[in-house]
Amino acid sequence: MPNSEEFLTTGSWEKALLPVDATLQHAINSLNETSFQIAIIVTSDRILIGTLTDGDIRRGLLQGIDMGSSIEQIINRDPLVAPPELGRASVLQLMQSNRIHQLPIVDEDRHVVGLHLLDELMEPSQLKSIMVIMAGGQGTRLRPKTKNCPKPLLPIDGKPMLEHIIERAKAEGFQHFILAVHYLGNMIKEYCGDGSQWGVKIDYLCEELPLGTAGALSLLNSRPEMPFVVSNADVLTDIRYSDILAYHCRHSVSATMAVRIHELQHPFGVVRTNGVNILGFEEKPIYRNHINAGVYVLDPKVLDMLKLGEYCDMPTLFNCLQESNKRIIVYPIHEPWLDVGHVDDLKRAQTNHKKNS
């Protein structure tokens, strides 16, 4: 058996273990509680059954699997694994060549004995893609808190929402940010400056009139050279921006929209009918829909759809792309997410952040 310097495991890798009878909600909770982005499905004596990654869960959500369903139907039962004796360099090469971020360590009897994490095997690389943050809204639903303070600067645990977003993206390798500002935009520019206080570069798009969540992109002086991330400044989430960017690039599409499942329970029992005949009953059924989560990835060519200085929101832009036969896709998220649109949302964000800090 090699020493600890020959291969890298995380000391808390056992948190990634799940039984085969776990539900989808249990799996999501496990991924949210760890930073591994994988669940390792094992028997009671830790013999490997399979794995469940972030991508597997997202595909399950798209197939309509609900949170109470068993994970058994979406388990990858033939995952790539590494033996304990495989050295660090070989592990890194194996993970990079297969484009995976997690690699279970399994002994000759199929017992899980550890977990390799790509992020711990190499330093985060700087991304060349830019991130645009839409920070021009007036925050009318948050009045009076936004009367003299732009919504992106409202504090969450002592720091503006905008700063939390920038710091999170920087930790993933983003180095260049462009902030679209309008309402009290000078306050945002004064606070953020050129980004040097965070070790990043910040430029600005200054809207003379509100241009919407897509229209502000028409003000870009030069077209980005590669796909770029766009986020609303009032969306707080644990989503990895680099992951949705990679997801977009793998699918070679024009635009990607992060979506979240929203559940709405009917307050009454529903009667299914055909004419006057009763076909069946549903007691307070739950309706599930995908809602726009306010984070996007766009191909630079998408900017051709925008007219300089003309109002356009993201749903309209996506509709235009669809009408032009451009491929647009969704990126279903299960991570914690909050659209800070009302005072109650702000209080919830402040409370949740204190719990997690």
The portion of residues assigned to helices is 25-40%
Oligomeric state of shown chains: single chain
If you consult CATH, what is the topology of the largest domain? Spore Coat Polysaccharide Biosynthesis Protein SpsA, Chain A
Instruction: Tell how many strands the DSSP assignment holds.
Output: 18
Secondary-structure map:
Elements: E1 17-19, H1 24-33, E2 38-42, E3 48-53, H2 54-62, H3 88-97, E4 102-106, E5 112-117, H4 118-121, E6 131-134, E7 155-156, E8 159-160, H5 161-171, E9 176-181, H6 185-192, E10 201-206, H7 212-215, E11 228-232, E12 235-237, H8 241-251, E13 255-265, E14 270-274, E15 277-282, E16 286-298, H9 314-323, E17 328-333, E18 337-339, H10 343-356
Parallel strand pairs: 1-2, 6-9, 6-11, 9-10, 13-17
Antiparallel strand pairs: 2-3, 4-5, 7-8, 11-16, 12-18, 13-16, 14-15
Question: Can you describe what's shown?
Answer:
There is one protein chain. The protein is an alpha/beta fold and 357 residues long. The protein folds into two domains: 13-121, CBS-domain; 134-356, Alpha-Beta Complex (Spore Coat Polysaccharide Biosynthesis Protein SpsA, Chain A), CATH 3.90.550. It has ten helices and 18 strands. The chain has helices at 24-33, 54-62, 88-97, 118-121, 161-171, 185-192, 212-215, 241-251, 314-323, 343-356, and strands at 17-19, 38-42, 48-53, 102-106, 112-117, 131-134, 155-156, 159-160, 176-181, 201-206, 228-232, 235-237, 255-265, 270-274, 277-282, 286-298, 328-333, 337-339. The strands form six sheets. Strands 10-9-6-11-16-13-17 form a seven-stranded mixed β-sheet, with helices on both faces. A three-stranded mixed β-sheet has the order 1-2-3. β4 (102-106) and β5 (112-117) form a beta hairpin. The chain starts with 16 loop residues before the first strand and ends with a helix.
